[in-house]
Amino acid sequence: MNEEDKVLETIGVDEAAVLVAEARREVTQTTQAIAELCLLAGCPDRAAEFIAAGKSQADVRRALIDARAAQSDAADIRSTITVDAGTQSLDRPETSLIVAAVKKLTAGRRSIQQRN
User: Fold this and answer.
1) CA pair distance 112, 21, nearest whole angstrom
2) Nearest Cα to 68, choosing from 40, 48, 49?
3) Helix or strand or coil: residue 95?
4) DSSP H stretches of helix in the chain
């Protein structure tokens, strides 16, 4: 009898059931993690593809990152700064939205204080 036969003989039905339950739990956790990775990456439809191929979480993560990088490389970012950018005068704070909001808030408080 070789070692494999001895191991097979020593595993009882209860032990086999425990091993099967652990394997099922592991598969369920892996498939759930893959589905979540795909959902977070914005392509939940690819989860079935990865699960059917027997990919690990690390393989899926790498494939999704590579796909995102390829997509990013395909879309050029164009940033144009105009000649007069940053040269606008800030000498007039009354045109500031923040100053306008503060004036509005303080005006409302003044009217409440005058009523009292």
Assistant:
1) 70
2) 40
3) helix
4) 3-10, 13-40, 47-52, 57-74, 97-115
DSSP 8-class letter at 46: G
Q: Over the range 11-31, which residues count as b (16 or more CB within 10 Å of their CB) and which as e?
A: eeeeeeeeeeeeeeeeeeebe
For the stretch 35-88, pLDDT in tens is 999 999 999 999 999 999 999 999 999 999 999 888 877 777 777 777 766 656
Name the DSSP class of 93. Answer: G
On the CB side of 46, how many CA atoms lie within 13 Å of its CA?
16
Nearest CA among 42, 33, 95 for reference residue 64: 42
CB 57 within 8 A of CB 38: no
- Name which of 58, 45, 50 is nearest 31 in CA terms: 50
Q: Which residue has the tokens 């970012």?
A: 77
